[in-house]
Specification:
With 537 residues, the chain is α+β, with helices and mostly antiparallel strands. The chain contains 17 helices and 11 strands.
Length: 537
């Protein structure tokens, strides 16, 4: 089946139409041929996906939905052909060869509670054949309506995408073969196209599927993709995307306010003869939602020193001693986390419930100020003024309470430890009231590390330092894209194709891509989907 790229079939403006009648007729005939071919292609495509298993069951059509999920794989390929065609003046074409029938085993599904309006609707109609339209009394059975039921269904499909480049030669001289331009491969001689690579990256780092599970999943679809092939392919993509990752890190560190935290991961081996060890994933996050993850094989100061060497401004962090060198320089201002301080009093509830509850109530007043500010939608200056009016007096009350309580409790008790933590961090705990751009806690960084905590329950460990670096690169781009409201897989698929030709890497970062390319990519895709659906209408 051949599907002609819509990019090369343009509606001519009135002034561009020929004035000659024969030329107009030829133009109309050409258009009609293309329309007929398109309708034929879509009919074959529909049968390929929804072929009937019985003569009493037939497909009556597709009701247009948006986005039309069933046509997305074709829409993406057509969009690629269209873009190359427009850029080079070539004719883009997508060819789809129906795969051989695959026996599928059905699985039960839970009854859906609702059916969102944005989903496309595929309607399957069952009717009695003509020889069964006779009643026992001898009368003819007439159709009076339908019994209708709705179910949510899901269809995932893998295709073989074959790219053909026309080769041309002059018959007169036989010199100089000219080949039509086509998009380059993401991975030279690789088996996986950009859409499949984006899918694997998303499954691995957005939905935390380890490679051995992906291997089994694809094997169930008849695809011989070993975990080593998947891992090497993703690692190669990480190498291609590393310039974006490094630029992302520069942008985060250039901001005046950042958040940072770290969490543990297991590194299977550091060298050939060494066993597993505890490594770290660090996150550096700005107010715009740009995430920069870094992998280190230990919790030493070397990791933060390398990333933060050019940073100056406010840094939300826990009381990790590794950061002290930055505060001593005077270029970085520590913003301590009230959620950490509160958590220590929460831990003391079991041993000293009365004092712990007093502390939690006092800290709760600080959070009530934050809640009021959020409900009022205050800007940075308004938030600073509100904190100065209400939070600063409350902080003075908390400080006095801490001084009295420290003398009342046993020195090694959980309550004493909570009190000493707050007093030791007191100056940094007050900083947030001085600037409305700051937060009361470091929960933003903790939330940014949650995907790592969830993921390590699935993939358990990194096989090598290279695996940790790959994870840091992919997680940085994925989490930043998600925070920017970008479709992660659509973004990755498009960027993997642009990375070899786009010189300005800032345009390929999630926020830059959203500004420069998102409307073009989604607009072209939705236009093709709409044409596909209308042609089936």
């Amino acid at each position: 089946m051949k599907f002609v790229s819509m990019g090369v079939v343009k509606n001519k403006k009135r002034e561009e139409l020929p004035r000659d009648v024969d030329a107009l007729i030829a133009l109309l005939e050409e258009r009609d041929e293309r329309i007929a071919a398109l309708e034929h292609n879509l009919a074959v495509y529909a049968r390929m996906l929804f072929s009937s298993s019985s003569e009493k069951r037939r497909l009556t059509g597709l009701a247009a939905g948006h986005p039309h999920q069933l046509a997305l794989f074709m829409a993406d390929l057509v969009a690629d052909a269209e873009r190359i065609a427009e850029a080079t003046g070539a004719t883009g074409r997508v060819e789809v060869e129906p795969p051989p029938p695959v026996r599928r085993t059905g699985k039960g599904s839970r009854k859906a509670k609702s059916f969102p309006d944005h989903l496309p609707v595929v309607e399957t109609l069952f009717e009695l054949p003509a020889d069964q339209l006779l009643c026992m009394c001898g009368g003819e059975l007439k159709l009076i309506g339908y019994e209708v039921r709705n179910e949510l269904e899901r269809i995932e499909i893998t295709i073989t995408h074959r790219t053909k480049q026309g080769k041309y030669v002059c018959r007169c001289c036989g010199e100089g073969v000219v080949t039509a331009t086509a998009p380059g491969r993401v991975i030279d001689k690789g088996r996986l196209g950009p859409g499949f690579l984006a899918h694997v990256i998303g499954e691995r780092f957005q939905f935390h599927m380890p490679y051995h599970r992906l291997e089994k999943k694809y094997a169930g679809e008849g695809l011989a993709l070993s975990r080593s092939v998947l891992e090497r392919s993703v690692a190669r993509c990480a190498e291609l995307l590393e310039p974006l990752y490094l630029e992302l890190g520069k942008q985060v560190i250039a901001e005046p306010v950042i958040f940072t935290d770290d969490t543990t991961v297991t590194l299977a081996r550091l060298a050939e003869r060494e066993g597993s060890r505890t490594a770290r994933i660090w996150v550096y996050l700005d107010k715009l939602g740009r995430h920069f993850y870094d992998f280190t094989d230990s919790r030493s100061r070397a990791g933060p020193e390398l990333i933060l060497k050019n940073f100056s401004g406010f840094m939300h962090a826990d009381a990790l001693g590794n950061y002290d060198i930055f505060y001593q320089s005077g270029l970085v201002t520590e913003v301590a986390c009230w959620a950490h301080a509160r958590r220590k009093f929460k831990d003391a509830v079991s041993s000293d419930p009365e004092l712990a509850e007093e502390a939690l109530e006092l800290i709760g007043e600080l959070y009530r100020v934050e809640k009021a500010a959020k409900s009022q939608g205050l800007d940075a200056e308004g938030l600073r003024a509100l904190r100065q009016r209400y939070s600063v007096p409350q902080l003075e009350k908390i400080h006095a309470w801490l001084g009295v309580t420290e003398a009342r409790v046993l020195p090694k008790s959980p309550m004493a430890k909570a009190v000493r933590y707050a007093l030791n961090q007191w100056d940094a705990l007050k900083v947030y009231t001085t600037d409305g751009r700051l937060e009361i806690d470091n929960n933003a960084a903790e939330r940014a590390l949650r995907p790592i905590a969830v993921g390590r329950k699935n993939w358990l460990f990194f096989q090598s330092q290279g695996g940790g670096k790959t994870a840091a690169i992919m997680m940085s781009l994925i989490q930043t894209a998600a925070a920017a409201g970008v479709n992660v897989k659509l973004y990755l698929r498009d960027v993997l194709q642009r990375i070899s030709t786009e010189n300005d890497v800032t345009k390929l970062l999630p926020h830059g891509w959203k500004q420069h390319f998102e409307s073009e990519v989604e607009g072209r895709r939705n236009e093709i989907i709409e044409l596909l659906v209308k042609s089936r209408g």
